[in-house]
Automatic annotation (TrEMBL), chain A:
This is Succinyl-CoA:(R)-benzylsuccinate CoA-transferase subunit BbsF. The keyword Transferase applies. It is an enzyme of class 2 (transferase). The gene is bbsF_2. Residues 1-46 are annotated as: Disordered. Keywords: Transferase. InterPro entries: CoA-transferase_III, CoA-Trfase_fam_III, CoA-Trfase_III_dom3_sf, CoA-Trfase_III_dom_1_sf.
TrEMBL record, chain B:
Signal peptide: none annotated. PANTHER family: SUCCINATE--HYDROXYMETHYLGLUTARATE COA-TRANSFERASE. This is Succinyl-CoA:(R)-benzylsuccinate CoA-transferase subunit BbsF. It is an enzyme of class 2 (transferase). It comes from Candidatus Accumulibacter adjunctus. InterPro entries: CoA-transferase_III_domain, CoA-Trfase_fam_III, CoA-Trfase_III_dom3_sf, CoA-Trfase_III_dom_1_sf.
Length: 442, 409
């Protein structure tokens, strides 16, 4: 089960993608031929090389775990319906490739697409054969669906005792709501995140429009898979990782549960601010742009007062203490609003950065593309594909010093590896593959 | 009942020792997860107040805040002043006997103390080191201080939360970026451990808060790269890709529901729930493209329907029809929710020295064969200093007293 062979073209992309840092010890020079050689061998040296992952999920919650494993060397087989494929292929902005939206191109990275109709008996049999030759299975059907197809845990385990299975669903595999359909935005609401986005007493807005819950549940899923693989090495036993998207969101809510449990405190929407610190929020600059300023400690406020040219504000009898600032929240915020509002974004940034005050631009994606730090860290990976031109996607996170991940291909065309996998991995004769195709099982 | 030692020794990370010399949430959260799954976590703190996380948020009778109690779960607290040469020596001793180090000092700080990667690696070639900062160890902004609030801004999600053209608001929580980075850090550590098992070689993970946030932005980057499209704030409904898709007020004042029809089939089910199946006909709104073109009309129909019913009526009808809907829960709603109870997402833990029960989020991810566990909440400052120095480094009582007198510990 060697990792994917990388073509010369892949290596070039990979060098661009992993060679983020320009001045650090991790820097992989994209031009050095020695590095290229390293990278071309690198596939088998990556931490997840030798591992085969079946991703039979749709959209992102769960499948993103497969993306990460793929970035670090696993072979990922995306098993899709022969006609429809993953609905993610149609979700979002269309590209020039008819079976791929931009989200699919980005998040379908590093996969091979294998079509298989699990609603047909022969499809199920083939699937079990794939499972027998794989290490990890990722799925996100509504609980009970795989069981209906004869692909419950018992059947899968019989095919492969060491199988590690990640199951992601809106509400998890147990509990009264298990059969409800769940998506990230519903999970944000259910887990209490959306309730908190917006101004007090006003409309709760979507907390940033991105499907955080899908990414979060996949991150927990990938951690679960790695833990389970570690256990498998000792015991030979596989196991199930069961994640509800809402749980992954709820786990990020710092002290909210403890504070309600102990003091009955219900956290409400706080607009652009924070309940633990002042000033801590978003402020508008004179050129109608925004910055975030976060004075989490008294020392940071002291620096900020100096930057504003008002060091006396940090005195012990004024606002030197977080408690004083929280008590005088309106007044302190007013001072900050006035100061920030009198300067351009660049001026605020420069003064705060020089004064070591935690500050950041509220970047739009246009700002991000221009940002020198994003460039230097290689956060924007640029991949070229014939017929598509250049596609810019987020680079690999996290960055490992000895075994950096890589992006070998964008989201593949539907069924691009069906023949290869059936023929080479399962040893099915070409004629039989033709028959399966005619019957639309693949 | 606490799990037996036998069960604990079967956890996937039994036998792994982690030093958490970091502060607040991000890198420490990586260590928390490792601890939940069997690793021994030594929280190394300065003797003068310790991790500032002990002061963030709501204080308890023990002074340490609730956030500390919850997120420092399972850790042992060891005090050590790294500004003093003797503290540095003891730290090196701990490094020699550990597998993982988590830190989040500003780049260059550990190096200043003589504890940079090259030094640590010589002491322990198998060491895995997680380095978390606002901007990473490289690049022009590497020396800037970073917090999650700033990472949300730099990573592009703060810009996207709020009413169109209105003030950008906090995207629900001020700590998302910390937890996200903790997750990526934990993943990096687990992959590095796997590499170490094969090769004997350690490495470091260079994590940046803003990168974790930016990685979660779906098609934001490719859509700008290819079409120059800049996504803006969308208020309560986000209709770039799907409609209806957002928050809708109900007849109950202040109670909202989320509805998310990402496919045509789901919209069809919603129309069934609404008793308006004709809306899903192909020549009406059956197709996502048509709905997106007529988003204002579609949203208005859904808003009218939601506004005419109580929250629970809407949800009951949606669930009966299999339509994707859910409440916008407050924490009070969550405490009363059957699913949270059935899944035991909230665990109540008695801490003798707090005198009260503390309710905290339970372990994630959920593993069937080797589930993680919470043995105790965040420790008191220096609670385990003596134990660790004597058991692990072999110091006797008088040596420890001496260190304490010199305020090294």
């Amino acid at each position: 089960m060697a990792g994917e062979p990388s073509s010369t073209k892949d290596v070039r992309q990979q060098a661009e993608v992993t060679g983020g840092a320009s001045d650090g010890p991790t820097a992989a020079s994209p031009t050095s031929s020695e590095e290229e050689h390293e990278n071309s061998l690198g596939g088998s040296r990556l931490p997840m090389s030798g591992l085969r992952v079946i991703d039979v999920g749709t959209f992102l919650a769960g499948p993103y775990a497969a993306s990460i494993l793929g970035e670090f060397g696993a072979e990922v087989l995306k098993v899709e319906h022969p006609v429809a494929g993953d609905p993610m292929r149609r979700f979002g902005t269309a590209s020039k490739r008819h079976d791929a939206t931009l989200a699919w191109l980005s998040e379908g990275r590093n996969r091979k697409s294998v079509t298989l109709d699990l609603r047909q008996r022969e499809g199920v049999e083939l699937f079990l054969k794939l499972v027998a030759k794989s290490d990890v299975l990722i799925e996100n059907f509504r609980p009970g669906t795989m069981e209906e197809w004869g692909l419950g845990w018992e059947e899968l385990r019989q095919a492969n005792r060491g199988l590690v299975m990640l199951r992601v669903s809106g509400y998890g595999q147990s509990g009264p709501y298990r059969r409800r359909s769940g998506f990230a935005h519903i999970a944000h609401g259910f887990a209490g995140l959306s309730y908190l986005a917006g101004f007090p007493g006003e409309t709760p807005v979507v907390p940033g429009t991105v499907p955080l819950g899908d990414y979060l549940s996949s991150l927990y899923g990938a951690i679960g898979i790695l833990l389970a693989l570690r256990h498998r090495e000792v015991s030979g036993e596989g196991q199930i990782i069961d994640i509800g998207i809402y749980e992954a969101v709820f786990r990020q809510m710092d002290e909210i549960a403890a504070a309600y449990g102990l003091f009955g405190k219900v956290r409400e929407r706080e607009g652009a601010g924070s309940f633990v610190a002042v000033p801590h929020g978003h402020f508008r600059t004179v050129d109608d742009k925004w910055v975030a300023i976060a004075c989490t400690t008294d020392r940071m406020f002291e620096r900020f007062a100096a930057v504003m040219g008002r060091p006396e504000l940090a005195a012990a009898d004024r606002y030197g203490n977080q408690r004083q600032r929280l008590a005088a929240r309106e007044e302190v915020n007013r001072l900050v609003i006035e100061w920030v509002g009198s300067l351009t974004r660049e001026q605020v940034m420069r003064r705060c950065v020089d004064g070591e005050v935690p500050v950041g631009k509220l970047n739009s994606i246009a700002d991000i593309f221009e940002d020198e730090h994003f460039q230097a860290r290689g956060n924007l990976a640029r991949l070229c594909e014939e017929g598509l031109g250049e596609v810019v996607i987020p680079g690999v996170v996290p960055t490992l010093s000895e075994t950096p991940g890589r992006i070998s291909n964008l989201g593949p065309p539907l069924g691009n590896a069906t023949y290869e996998i059936l023929r080479e991995l399962l040893g099915i004769p070409a004629q039989e593959i033709r028959r399966l195709r005619q019957r639309r099982i693949i | 009942m606490p799990p037996t030692e036998d069960a604990a020794s079967r956890l996937p990370l039994a036998g792994i020792r982690v030093i958490d010399a970091a502060t607040v949430i991000a890198a420490p959260y990586s260590a928390s997860i490792l601890g939940e799954f069997g690793a021994e976590v030594l929280k190394v703190e300065n003797p003068h107040g310790g991790d500032p996380m002990r002061q963030f948020g709501t204080p308890t009778k023990r002074k340490d805040t609730l956030a500390w109690l919850s997120e420092a779960r399972n850790k042992k607290s060891v005090t050590l002043d790294l500004h003093l040469p003797e503290g540095v020596d003891l730290f090196k001793g701990l490094i020699e006997k550990s597998d993982v180090l988590c830190e989040n000092f500003r780049p260059g700080t550990l190096e200043k103390w003589g504890l940079g990667w090259e030094v640590l690696r010589q002491i322990n070639p198998r060491l895995i080191m997680l380095r978390v900062t606002g901007y990473g160890q490289t690049g022009p902004y590497r020396d800037r201080p970073g917090f999650a609030r700033v990472a949300h801004a730099v990573g592009g999600i703060a810009f996207l939360a709020g009413m169109p053209r209105g003030t950008p608001v906090t995207p629900g929580s001020t700590t998302l970026g910390d937890y996200l980075t903790g997750l990526y850090g934990c993943l990096g550590i687990l992959m590095a451990l796997r590499h170490r098992d094969r090769t004997g070689q350690g490495q470091y993970i260079d994590a940046a808060l803003y990168e974790s946030v930016f990685r979660c932005t779906d098609e934001l980057a490719p859509a700008y790269g290819m079409f120059g499209r800049v996504r803006e704030r969308h208020g309560p409904t986000h209709n770039d890709f799907a409609c209806p898709h957002g928050h809708f007020p109900t007849k109950d004042d202040g109670k909202w529901v989320a509805i998310s029809c990402v496919t045509d089939k789901l919209f069809e089910r919603l129309t069934t729930a609404m008793g308006r199946p004709e809306l899903a006909a192909p020549h009406v709104y059956g197709d996502q493209k048509t709905r997106l073109e007529n988003r204002h009309d579609v949203n208005e129909i859904v808003r009218d329907w939601c506004g005419s019913l109580h929250r629970d009526e809407i949800l009951d009808r949606c669930f009966a029809a299999g339509a994707p809907a859910g409440p916008l829960n407050s924490i009070a709603d969550i405490f009363g929710d059957r699913q949270f109870h059935a899944r035991r997402n909230l665990v109540a833990i008695d801490e003798p020295d707090i005198g009260e029960t503390v309710i905290v989020p339970s372990v994630l991810p959920r593993l069937s064969l080797t589930p993680g566990r919470i043995r105790h909440l965040g420790p008191r400052l220096g609670q385990h200093t003596d134990e660790v120095l004597s058991d692990l480094l072999g110091l006797d009582a008088s040596a420890i007293d001496d260190l304490r007198r010199k305020r090294v510990i």
